[in-house]
Amino acid sequence: MATDNFESTNRIAQKVFEFVKKYDVPTQITVLSHITTQMDTMRRGTPHSMIFQSIAGTEKTNDSFGVTKKLIQEAYQVAFEFGISSGLNLLYFETGQGSEVSVDADEGVDEMTLEARTYGFARYFDPFMVNNVSGFIGPETIYDGKEMIRANLEDHFMGKLMGLPMGMAPCFTNHTPINMDDQQIGTMLLTMAGANFFMGIPHGDDVMLAYQDTSFHDDACLRELMGKKPAPEFHRWLMKKGLMDEHGKLTAMAGDASIFL
User: Fold this and answer.
1) Domains: count for the chain
2) Is residue 71 domain-resident?
3) 0.70 cut: is pTM over it?
């Protein structure tokens, strides 16, 4: 099992980098270890495209994450100097309603307001991407399917107002009354509302935190139902590999791992 240290972070990043370079995949590389671990590995030559960190809407919660405004600014400079990306957007944030109350740092403020504050904090740093995961904590923050769907639509709306490059992850832990039907309804609504991206977790089962997220097959299904296509660069790569046609429809080769042999 990977742990949060230089060795594991470097090993994962190096292996992904080898794959990306070998097959010329137009994508980014980041490893979800702590921000300070990523900074250390990047300074020592590990290939990262950007730096990841979870953030929240109160200072006390961010303190519990071991992150401050000053540290994020330092991380950006490290990514700018040592990272492998050519652009200026070098940070990847994760957010989600309920982070503050889960560590008793909500200061009596409701979850949606604190999530809006989080987006303001994120926007300050002009990130490459933000991933919203309202529902991943558990029933103490998002109790049932209606709450999960509502929270995700609220977050999507606020993210658009803030101009964030934000994707959605309508998700739920295995000890809540939420089920796959609720998640699929939420994901469909978010797709129709113009969500920028969803996660692609194998079978939708995040084994690290024991919760259900969106899967690769969810993403493919939603693209086909809604007439969407991948990002242009990635779409061209998929067509080059014979995995998708020009209309965004997967070919018979899609899912055949033998193309990498």
Assistant:
1) 1
2) yes
3) yes
